Amino acid sequence: MGQFGSSVTPEMLKEALLTLGFSDVYETALGADYGCLQEARHYVEEVASGKQNFSLTSCCPSWSVLAKKYFPETIDKISNELTPMVATARIIKQEHPKASVVFIGPCVSKKLEASRRTVRSDVDFVITFEELAGIFEAKGIFMSEMEEQEESEKMNRATSLGRGYGVAGGVAGAIKKAIDTYYPGTEVKIEHAQGLEDCRKALLMAKAGRLNGYLIEGMACPGGCVAGAGTNITIPQATRAVTQFANTSEKKIPENM
Q1: 24-49 as b/e, with b when 16 or more CB fall inside 10 Å?
Q2: Distance between CA atoms of 3 and 130, rounded to whole angstroms?
Q3: CA distances from 190 to 39, 55, 84, 193 (A)
Q4: C-alpha closest to that of 39 among 80, 7, 74, 70
Q5: pLDDT given at position 242
Q6: How large is the average pLDDT for residues 82-88?
Q7: CA within 20 to 30 Å of 79's CA: 31, 48, 102, 193, which one?
């Protein structure tokens, strides 16, 4: 939201992508909704029960690499749930088995994630918002000329929880809301770090046993995914746009599976 202009709706962006040559467009928030429910279940069954000391989110590839490289003792605490990118890609592959899937987002680290052997079969290409803007310009596709088509299907499958994942604190906050809704009475402890230095500090605290019982969210970019290296607008602009979009979602929370 907001990456291609404050007046550009998701349907206008979808129309531009279809004009460019894509067959369909899915929100990555769909995968975030799926992951949110899985993370909530994992926290309740493993961390809140005391079986596991703490849990680390896995959405941010740079955060995961930091933990695995410099804090190897935390590897078994990193979530094994699919990241929103991969979960959404698998939804697409299920619905369109022969599709080539392109992830478009703010993060250059997703290129690294997509190169992993276990992910390659799901995500074929990764481009950033900045790269997409260049492609639009090269092809002479201008957002000001896009119109929502009456027959276009509205992009309303995702919930406000999944749509808020890209802002710092959004992942842990969404998981907490899911736990509060579907596992009432469960105490949820949250720590979220943004920026690699704060992420390192959080991992040090976890290693020292000071964050036992916590769900720890780490994002390499200060501000969250909206501050990724491949964005077109400022962090405050992106944060406001994403938050507003999430708050106006028709669906507030994904249905429990």
Answers
A1: ebbbbbbbbbbbbbbbbbbbbeebbe
A2: 9
A3: 13, 10, 20, 10
A4: 80
A5: 95
A6: 94
A7: 102
d(CA 11, CA 17): 10
In angstroms, the Cα distances linking 107 to 59, 205, 227 are 11, 27, 8
Summarised one tens digit per residue, pLDDT across range 164-194 is 999 999 999 999 999 999 999 999 999 999 9
Q: Is pLDDT at 7 greater than 80 in this prediction?
A: yes
Encode 146-158: b = buried (16+ Cβ within 10 Å), e = exposed: beeeeeeeebebb
Instruction: Count CB-CB contacts under 10 A for residue 99.
Output: 15
Distance CA(237)–CA(1), nearest Å, equals 9
Q: Where are the alpha helices (DSSP H) in the chain?
A: 10-20, 29-42, 61-70, 84-95, 109-114, 117-120, 129-139, 160-163, 170-182, 196-207, 235-247
Which amino acid, residue 40?
A
For residue 229, the one-letter residue type is A
- Between CA 119 and CA 116 the distance in angstroms is 5
Strand partners, 55: 215
Residue 149 has pLDDT above 80, yes or no: no
Contact 81, 39 (CB under 8 A): yes
Cβ atoms of residues 186 and 48 within 8 Å: yes
How many Cβ atoms from other residues are within 10 Å of residue 53's Cβ?
Answer: 16
Residue 36 CB contacts under 8 Å (≥ 6 apart), including other chains? 161, 162, 165, 171, 174, 175, 178, 254
Which tokens hold the place of 245?
């979009």
